[in-house]
């Protein structure tokens, strides 16, 4: 029997159209993304990398509104483990995203920690493990970010564990959550990234459910993932290898994840993402249509 997932608001994001950067000739134009995401049956979208969609609030509101779309969140990348010295530069970027996010009526900012491997070249740019001092900087910096966005913009931050960042595995996610104030810092659970890094999404929801304020729905191909792990392949090349796949072909199974999120009893966005940068321009929409149909079959 299909469970009714009436607390989950399903959407998609530029990432599902192969968009990783504000401007890149390998990416589809933003107009095509908006046209196709609406035609695929989604109502909610994320802003994606700042500058990909128009940053003028009036123009963006018109563009999304006339397609029947609404914005669920903005996204920022941060390197707060580097300490107070990076705060001003970080805040300058976050503030622009926050202003546009609030203007679009959204209430969340998805915060992605900086990569320790370059996402274009795969070159290692920092050690993969943080020192105790860097963990303290990361926790206090995220709390400050959460407080500033809550008090200044009425927005909640949801931190996104991500492959090739310092918040990735079950151990690191638990350490981060235990070190941060629940009133200031929530979690965006990306089911694909968490599986990529060896985590169990259902277990995380059942253990830290009160911290999870947002979902990214994604699956990984277990055979490709095994090869990625065997060869130590960085995340960018792994995506080009096809490590992220169309549901329900991969792991984790999404039905138990959705059911566990529904049991939390709170309204929550569940935004579909399928990393596939770069990809042919005709590839994303058929996948998006099939994925939306699949999620409806799950009750969402």
UniProtKB/TrEMBL annotation:
Annotated Xylose isomerase-like TIM barrel domain ranges read 34-285
Task: List GO molecular-function terms, semicolon-separated.
Answer: isomerase activity
* Keywords for the protein's UniProt record, in alphabetical order: Isomerase
Tell whether Heme is among the UniProt keywords: no
Q: Which named protein is this?
A: Sugar phosphate isomerase/epimerase
Question: What's the source species for this entry?
Answer: Streptomyces hazeniae
């Amino acid at each position: 029997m299909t469970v009714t997932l009436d607390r989950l608001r399903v959407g998609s994001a530029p990432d599902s159209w192969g968009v990783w950067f504000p401007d890149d000739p390998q990416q589809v134009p933003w107009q095509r993304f908006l046209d196709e995401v609406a035609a695929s049956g989604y109502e909610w979208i994320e802003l994606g990398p700042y500058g990909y969609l128009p940053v003028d609030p009036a123009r963006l509101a018109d563009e999304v509104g006339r397609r029947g779309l609404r914005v669920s969140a903005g996204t920022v990348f941060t390197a707060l483990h580097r300490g107070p010295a990076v705060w001003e530069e970080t805040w300058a970027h976050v503030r622009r995203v926050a202003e546009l996010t609030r203007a679009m009526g959204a209430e969340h900012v998805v915060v992605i920690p900086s990569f320790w491997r370059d996402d274009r070249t795969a070159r290692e740019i920092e050690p993969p493990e943080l020192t105790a001092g860097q963990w303290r900087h990361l926790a206090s910096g995220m709390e400050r970010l959460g407080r500033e966005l809550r008090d200044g913009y009425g927005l909640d931050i949801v931190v996104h564990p991500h492959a090739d960042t310092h918040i990735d595995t079950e151990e690191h996610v638990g350490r981060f959550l235990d070190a941060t104030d629940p009133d200031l810092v929530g979690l965006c659970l990306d089911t694909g990234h968490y599986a990529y890094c060896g985590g169990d999404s259902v277990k995380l929801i059942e253990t830290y459910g009160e911290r999870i304020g947002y979902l990214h729905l994604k699956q990984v191909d277990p055979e490709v993932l095994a090869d990625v792990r065997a060869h130590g392949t960085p995340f960018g090349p792994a995506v080009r290898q096809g490590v992220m796949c169309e549901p329900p072909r991969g792991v984790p199974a999404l039905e138990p994840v959705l059911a566990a999120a529904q049991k939390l009893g709170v309204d929550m966005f569940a935004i579909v993402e399928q990393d596939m940068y770069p990809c042919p321009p005709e590839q994303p929409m058929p996948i998006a249509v099939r994925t939306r149909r699949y999620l409806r079959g799950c009750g969402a």
